[in-house]
UniProtKB/TrEMBL annotation, chains A, B:
Keyword Transcription regulation (UniProt): yes
Matches recorded under PANTHER family: LACI-RELATED TRANSCRIPTIONAL REPRESSOR, LACTOSE OPERON REPRESSOR
Domain HTH lacI-type residue range list: 18-72
Protein name: LacI family transcriptional regulator
Molecular-function GO terms, alphabetical: DNA-binding transcription factor activity; transcription cis-regulatory region binding
InterPro entries in the cross-refs: HTH_LacI (IPR000843), LacI/GalR-like_sensor (IPR046335), Lambda_DNA-bd_dom_sf (IPR010982), Peripla_BP_I (IPR028082)
Keywords associated with the record: DNA-binding, Transcription, Transcription regulation
SUPFAM superfamilies tied to this protein: lambda repressor-like DNA-binding domains, Periplasmic binding protein-like I
SMART domains on file: HTH_LACI
DNA sequence: TTGAAAGCGCTAACAT
DNA sequence: ATGTTAGCGCTTTCAA
C-alpha cells in the first residue's frame, strides 16, 4: 500500500489525537488554564483565555468525551427501548408513530447534550447492562412492564410515553386521551353522524383503556348506542379484519355511519376495506384514524387523522428527563400533551 | 453536608455504586486480582478466582463502562446517521427500508458489543463532535456526501449501505442491483409482459444509477422498448404522480403491461393509482414495487415486492465494521448482498 | 501466584 | 490570575 494509511482501527493509533496537555504545552500554559478557558469557567484574563482558545482551535483539539464522562460521573447517554405492549417488536420502527417518536427523541436529546442509544426491541436489561446509561426511555410499556422493572431495579430512571404512575423513579408523558376522543367524536357528531363505531386494541395500556372509557362516557352523554370492536392483535391484518367486523353493522343489521379507528393501521387499507363493504366515504361513512401515517394525505378522499403528536411527546419527555437528571429536584411523575385532529375529506359530510 | 459527599460528581448519587476496590476489600484481595478474575486473564489459582467472582456477584458489582473505555481508548460506540440523498430527513424512519435497516443495525451492533447512537437526520458532524464514536454508519449517502467527508476528516471510519468507493476509511455494503433488476424484469417477461415500464428516482446514488443502467441493458437484450419515468422528488405524492404518468402510455398511446416501481411509495397507493387509470391488476397490468412495506401483503391483490433485505445489509455491514475496527486488517472496501423477489398475486398472470 | 503502582484525559480543590 | 495536584474506576506492566 502506497499512501500512508491513517484510517483503519485504533490498534495502530490513526492520528495521535491532540490532548489537553498538548494544547497547554504549545500555548505555554497549564492544563487547568486551558481547560478553564475552553469551558468558560474560572477567572482568566481575556488575553490568556483567547490565547488558549486560539491554540486549541489551531491544533484541532477535541476534548475526550470518555475522560469527561469519567470525571463527571455521568455519561450523557440515554437508552431507548420498546416496551412489552408492542407486538411486532422486530419491526416496531415501521409504525409511523414509533418512527417519529424515535427520531424526535434522538434529536431532542442530542440538542440537550444527551446521545440516544437505540436498544433492540424486546431486549432485556441484561443485554445492555454494561452501557453507562443515565436514563432509559421505554416506549409503550405494558401496565406492569418487566423492562421498566428491570431498569428501575438497576437504579436507572425510566421515562415513558405511557403512564407508569406509582413507581418511584418512573416518569411519563402521555396524551390527553379524554380530549382526543371527544374531539373526534364531537367532529363526527357535528357532521351529522349518529351511529359511530369505535375500533380499539384490546390492550392494557392506559391510552387504550381510557379511549374505551372516554368513548363510553361520550356515548352515554349523547344518548347514542355504544358500538365497539376490540382488536386482539396489532398489525394491519387483524385491524382490517376488525374494521370489517365493525362495518357489517350490529345484530339488527344497522350499519354505522362513522368509524373511528384507534388501532394502528394503514389508512389506505382501511379505506379499501370500507369500499369493499359497499360504503362510500364520506357519503355514507365518515372515517377517522388515529395515525401518523403520511399516506392518509394521499388517498382519495384523504383520510382524517387524529395525531398523537409524537414530536411533542418526545420534546416534553426529554425536557422532563433533563430536568430530573440535572436538577434532581422533585419533579412531577407525569405530564399530558394534547393531540391534534387533522380533518380531511373522509370525515366531512358533503353538501347538497 | 451530612453524608460523606465525595468531591466532584453526581448531585446526590442514588445508590453509591459498588466499585472494583469495594469488591477487592470485601474479598481480602487486590484490585488487580479481582480484575483478572473477572476478565479471565492472568494466572490465578482457581480458588482465588472463584472467590473473587463470588464476592463480585454477591455484591452486585457492575464494572464502570466509562472507566473501561478510558483505559481501552475505544468507546464501543458507533453513530448512525442518514446521508444527504434522503429527502424527507426529519421523518426518514417512516420509510420501512430505513426503519428496518436502523433497527437491525442497532440490534446487530449491540450483539457484537457496540452501542448504536441514533444521530438526527441531516445533522452535521459538528453537532455530535463530542461523542466518542468509534465509527459512523451513514445510510444512503449521496455520491459525494458531505457528511461522509466530515466524518472521514475527523478520522472516524465510515460504513455505508451505498457504495462510497475510493475514499480511504470508507466501507460499504450494497445490494446486487444488476441481479435485482433482472429478477424483476425476468419475472415480468415470464408472465408474458412485453411492455414493461420503470419508475425510478432521478438521483445520483449508485443504486438508482445502476437500476437505470441494468434496465436499459435488459431491454436491449430482449429487444423491447425502454420505457422509463424519472421521479424528481421522494415521497408518496411525487411517486404516485410519476406512476400515473407511466400508466398513461407512450406518445403513440400504447399502454404498458407491467410496472416496476423502484422509488419508495406505499404499495396500496400505487395500486389505487393503477385502478384509477382503469387498469385491472394483474389482469392487464403486472405490478411490482421495490419496497419493504408490509402493507403490500394486505392489499387486494397483494403486491409483489423486491426486497432490499435491510436486515441482511445491516448484518453484513456490522460484521464488516467489527472486523475493520478490531482486526484493523486491510479489509475490502465493499460487499454486495443479494435481494429477494417476493412474488405475489399482483404480478402473476391469471390462467384461463 | 498475587499485589503495588502507574496512568488513560480530564476537571476542580487548593495553593500560589 | 494561573499553576500544582489529586483523583474519577479501571486495566496492565512490573515487582515481589
Amino acid at each position: 500500500m502506497t499512501h500512508g494509511s491513517r484510517h483503519g482501527g485504533q490498534p495502530s493509533s490513526p492520528t495521535p489525537r491532540v490532548r489537553l496537555v498538548d494544547v497547554a504545552r504549545e500555548a505555554g500554559l497549564s492544563k487547568t488554564t486551558v481547560s478553564a478557558a475552553l469551558n468558560d469557567t474560572g477567572r482568566l484574563s481575556p488575553a490568556v483565555r483567547e490565547k488558549a482558545r486560539e491554540t486549541a482551535r489551531r491544533m484541532g483539539y477535541r476534548p475526550n468525551a470518555t475522560a469527561r464522562q469519567l470525571r463527571a460521573g455521568r455519561a450523557k447517554l440515554i437508552g431507548y427501548v420498546v416496551g412489552e405492549a408492542v407486538d411486532a417488536r422486530s419491526v416496531f420502527l415501521e409504525s409511523p408513530y414509533f418512527a417519529r417518536l424515535t427520531g424526535a427523541t434522538a434529536a431532542t436529546a442530542l440538542r440537550r447534550g444527551y446521545a440516544m442509544v437505540l436498544l433492540p426491541a424486546g431486549s432485556l436489561q441484561s443485554e445492555w447492562a454494561d452501557l453507562p446509561l443515565d436514563a432509559v426511555v421505554v416506549t409503550d410499556p405494558d401496565a406492569d412492564d418487566r423492562i421498566v422493572d428491570d431498569v428501575l431495579a438497576a437504579g436507572i430512571p425510566v421515562f415513558s410515553d405511557r403512564s407508569v404512575e406509582g413507581r418511584p423513579g418512573a416518569y411519563w408523558v402521555d396524551v390527553d386521551t379524554e380530549a382526543a376522543v371527544r374531539s373526534a367524536l364531537d367532529h363526527f357528531h357535528e357532521q351529522g353522524a349518529r351511529r359511530p363505531v369505535l375500533v380499539v386494541p384490546d390492550s392494557t395500556t392506559r391510552f387504550h383503556t381510557e379511549v374505551f372509557a372516554a368513548h363510553r362516557e361520550w356515548c352515554a352523554e349523547h344518548g347514542l348506542p355504544e358500538r365497539v370492536v376490540r382488536v386482539g392483535e396489532a398489525g394491519n391484518g387483524p385491524v382490517v379484519r376488525a374494521v370489517e367486523t365493525a362495518l357489517t353493522g350490529d345484530p339488527a343489521g344497522r350499519r354505522p355511519d362513522a368509524l373511528l379507528v384507534v388501532a394502528e393501521a394503514s389508512p389506505p387499507l382501511v379505506l379499501a376495506a370500507a369500499r369493499r363493504h359497499g360504503y362510500d366515504v364520506p357519503g355514507d361513512l365518515l372515517l377517522a384514524c388515529v395515525s401518523e401515517d403520511v399516506t392518509a394525505e394521499h388517498t382519495e378522499p384523504p383520510v382524517t387523522t387524529l395525531s398523537l403528536r409524537p414530536e411533542a411527546i418526545a420534546e416534553a419527555g426529554i425536557e422532563h428527563l433533563v430536568r430530573v437528571l440535572e436538577q434532581g429536584g422533585r419533579e412531577p411523575a407525569g405530564t399530558l400533551v394534547p393531540t391534534r385532529l387533522d380533518v380531511r375529506a373522509s370525515s366531512v359530510r358533503q353538501h347538497g
